Q: What sequence folds into this?
């Protein structure tokens, strides 16, 4: 007589326990990866919008401003969103705000605005660093006085 093929209840329970332990270890690290990617994505968008702001200043022959929107829970100088416009013009060229429940906060050195003059230079004439923060996930970029955006990976 042949033996029946299959698994015993004990073998199935042991397999499920091992899988549960592995998942409980993997989930916290997965959350950290998701946080880092959210911050990286927000910083990539900001880098593109900084270039847009600089080019808007050059194209229009007038200073362009990126102003961070103050947000509860974010640093005093910064916020979770920003508006881009021309100095002295009340219109908004572009606006972005993280509308999801998990918000990346931008923290900036100096004032909560970045101004590019009509030649595309940062005013006042000093480098600015902007950090993206979400929990313990952080990323940063630097805007040089000549308007170049440098990312740190």
A:
């Amino acid at each position: 007589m042949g033996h029946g093929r299959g698994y015993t209840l004990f073998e199935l329970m042991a397999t499920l326990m091992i899988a549960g332990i592995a998942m409980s270890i993997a989930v916290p690290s997965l959350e950290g990866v998701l946080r880092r990617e959210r911050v990286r994505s927000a910083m990539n968008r900001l880098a593109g919008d900084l270039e847009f702001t600089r080019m808007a200043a050059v194209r229009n022959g007038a200073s362009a401003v990126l102003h961070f929107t103050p947000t509860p829970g974010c640093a005093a100088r910064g916020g979770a969103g920003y508006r881009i416009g021309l100095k002295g013009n009340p219109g908004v060229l572009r606006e972005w705000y993280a509308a999801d429940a998990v918000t990346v906060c931008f923290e900036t050195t100096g004032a909560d605005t970045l101004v590019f003059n009509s030649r595309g230079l940062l005013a006042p004439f000093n480098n600015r660093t902007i950090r993206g923060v979400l929990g313990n996930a952080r990323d940063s970029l630097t805007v040089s006085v000549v308007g170049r955006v440098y990312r740190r990976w």
User: Anything to note?
Assistant: The chain has one domain: 9-151.
